[in-house]
Amino acid sequence: xxxxxxxxxxxxxxxxxxxxxxxxxxxxxxxxxxxxxxxxxxxxxxxxxxxxxxxxxxxxxxxxxxxxxxxxxxxxxxxxxxxxxxxxxxxxxxxxxxxxxxxxxxxxxxxxxxxxxxxxxxxxxxxxxxxxxxxxxxxxxxxxxxxxxxxxxxxxxxxxxxxxxxxxxxxxxxxxxxxxxxxxxxxxxxxxxxxxxxxxxxxxxxxxxxxxxxxxxxxxxxxxxxxxxxxxxxxxxxxxxxxxxxxxxxxxxxxxxxxxxxxxxxxxxxxxxxxxxxxxxxxxxxxxxxxxxxxxxxxxxxxxxxxxxxxxxxxxxxxxxxxxxxxxxxxxxxxxxxxxxxxxxxxxxxxxxxxxxxx
Amino acid sequence: xxxxxxxxxxxxxxxxxxxxxxxxxxxxxxxxxxxxxxxxxxxxxxxxxxxxxxxxxxxxxxxxxxxxxxxxxxxxxxxxxxxxxxxxxxxxxxxxxxxxxxxxxxxxxxxxxxxxxxxxxxxxxxxxxxxxxxxxxxxxxxxxxxxxxxxxxxxxxxxxxxxxxxxxxxxxxxxxxxxxxxxxxxxxxxxxxxxxxxxxxxxxxxxxxxxxxxxxxxxxxxxxxxxxxxxxxxxxxxxxxxxxxxxxxxxxxxxxxxxxxxxxxxxxxxxxxxxxxxxxxxxxxxxxxxxxxxxxxxxxxxxxxxxxxxxxxxxxxxxxxxxxxxxxxxxxxxxxxxxxxxxxxxxxxxxxxxxxxxxxxxxxxxxxxxxxxxxxxxxxxxxxxxxxxxxxxxxxxxxxxxxxxxxxxxxxxxxxxxxxxxxxxxxxxxxxxxxxxxxxxxxxxxxxxxxxxxxxxxxxxxxxxxxxxxxxxxxxxxxxxxxxxxxxxxxxxxxxxxxxxxxxxxxxxxxxxxxxxxxxxxxxxxxxxxxxxxxxxxxxxxxxxxxxxx
Lengths: 359, 550
Description:
The complex is a heterodimer. By secondary structure, chain A is mostly helical. Chain A has helices spanning 13-37, 42-51, 57-82, 90-107, 116-142, 146-166, 200-218, 220-230, 232-238, 242-269, 280-290, 295-318, 325-345; strands at 3-7, 346-350. Chain A has a single domain (41-320), classed as Orthogonal Bundle (ABC transporter involved in vitamin B12 uptake, BtuC). Chain A is globular. Among the domains of chain B are: 39-115 and 190-268, P-loop containing nucleotide triphosphate hydrolases (Rossmann fold, 3-Layer(aba) Sandwich), CATH 3.40.50.300; 286-385 and 431-545, 3-Layer(aba) Sandwich (Rossmann fold). In chain B, the strands form five sheets. In chain B, strands 13, 16, 19, 20, 21, 22 and 23 form a seven-stranded mixed beta sheet that branches. A six-stranded mixed beta sheet of chain B has the order 6-7-8-3-9-10, sandwiched between helices. In chain B, strands 2-1-4-5 form a four-stranded antiparallel beta sheet. Chain B is globular and about 70 Å long. Classes of the chains: A mainly alpha, B alpha/beta. The A-B interface holds A 6, 9-11, 218-221, 223, 226-227, 230-231, 233-234, 236-241, 352, 354-357, 359 and B 19-20, 25, 43-44, 50-51, 90-95, 102, 104, 336-338, 358-363, 369, 371, 373, 376-383, 387, 390-392, 394, 400, 403-405, 407, 431, 433-434.
């Protein structure tokens, strides 16, 4: 082999931040080849996919609306990922949060009162936490792998929502469509920017990201979480409680996913329908890693991934690209990110020939 | 053969001169018989790694049948040199001569075909397989099983290495495991046997038996390259010694003619400090009492603790000796609080029951711990030194205000540790993983001592640490005891325990012997205890114990 791979003595901080950019560039290049191979004009396709949505106020506000749940969930998941607690079931926790918020909203249907919305959010957080408590209990009590339990519970959650909207919560005046009544105003998030769908939840999302940054960087709790993830034996040596931290991580990520569910039904959707998320809970995993598990990085990566959703729809309308393009782009991005991350810890060197004295 | 050393050396000098001239490979091979060239000669071997020249124009000469010591501190370049000789690494410059002939050793298989065998410091054995299976797996041509078993039996009997080929490895002691490696090497009729730190895990009796085997192997004409930093062993065993420091050869000498002290000074390149203990000081009150401690192990191959009892007074250094895997790890965990002791009053810190406190709770009572594992246990390699200072110091050093970390105070604490314990690091923001083993150990020891613990548990304080750092750590422990703390040192290094402890006990199969006063202890007595022979010699206690109700 003319080259070899060797571990770096110190992790390269420069590459740690450059690697997402490198991944982005590689994704765009691959997209270019892909569009050309499909017989589209690659420049026009990429323009409609990646740039056009950023050129109007409406496009930008839509970007934020899409990014809000991704960031909110991603921030929560990242806290757990730092501790090697792998909550893969945010999609289910989001769904349960949406069910709880929707249930409260419908229970007080037609009621006026400022307290309806906070009650919905509180119920959603509680529901998300309760749903994440199942993997937490199984993990701390029986050492059951939380990846499996949280993932499997997702499907239970989405089916539970379907059962409700096809049954007890179905709109009595809805011509038998599987959807609930539209929420009344007191159960809807106020719009921040007139003429757009930008709702108050997006502001909360930014505040939560900032709070998570403070938690992880400046408090002993965040420190304990990081130590547990990087060296579990050192955490025990320091007297940090592994089980308590696992509970904390799962409840926090579950609660935030539940809140994201409330923001979706009380924001852009406005009612309960069988499918309330295009996979936000799963995509947020990509968001968390793309943002380097850092709350502020996750804000940026959430916006980028949101662009892939909006750009995918836009390119579908404008250039006639298939809807699958969104998924392909997200997949490419994660693939290239993991590949580039390899360079953060390792480097490739041309193999030096052994210099021998002539004999 | 050893008497011919000098001639070999001189003869080789001329042969080497001839080499750089016009002599062809075959020509040199012909001169072999006349000149009696060394079995192995290494000329100007260099190897650079990123940021470090691990081997710098190293010369080494090993005569046939000679036991040659390679002596040096950790990081002196011993392992790099051995790995080049064994074909694991390729040198950047220089050459290796085998029986006077220049050779290129491309991989370990090539090394083995020349007749070079290596006994690793850390054996790679399959626990669930038998001795015979493990031997066969490590051979290039093991041949038929029954025949191999017979050869193993004959060879191990011939060298006094009792070994049953049918036994499973997981039930064997460390010494027996090493015998597997030695037998595996000897089966291939080696002409050069390389032993990398072979005695670090053996009892004194096992070491003596190993030395007899090695002498016999050498008498039969096989050269031995013996790597160690234990000076006494080298003095008793080796004919010649090459001393490495910082990747270079600093001296070649006859170890028998040198004192252990002069060898050590050559090795570390500085005056060796002896540990200064306060003398004749009165011991204070009981600081740590362990009473009937039972603990079941968590590990598959661990050891349950049974009825461990001892007590340590203020100002005293108490040693726990024993061969690895006899419950040291479990005892460390039970004392530090990483695991609960069976009963709350099984561990008393300054009279307070602490058995049911976690590590944080015991630290609040003034009990600190330097664990055996450094990377990933006593320190988080991926975190910087400030964060590693927070790891155990956040409580005792007052580095928190409610849940927030006081960044400035944490940084000052880390800097204090670096200065007070002469830790060589790029500064407090350097990652713990970037420190050498000795420096990281100094950092961890310093971090615990600066918290002024009343009781300090230290496990393997100088394992893999160079002599200079080891002396600094020993002095720091002595000073801490002199300031009124009780220090408990768990170590496999008997010399270390004899040097710094006041009393010591031996742990064997999870049971702790009666303590003996170190001044009255003999190496033989401790060695027998370590080997698990609790005869009359084992129960003798020094007068130092009489005052301790345990």
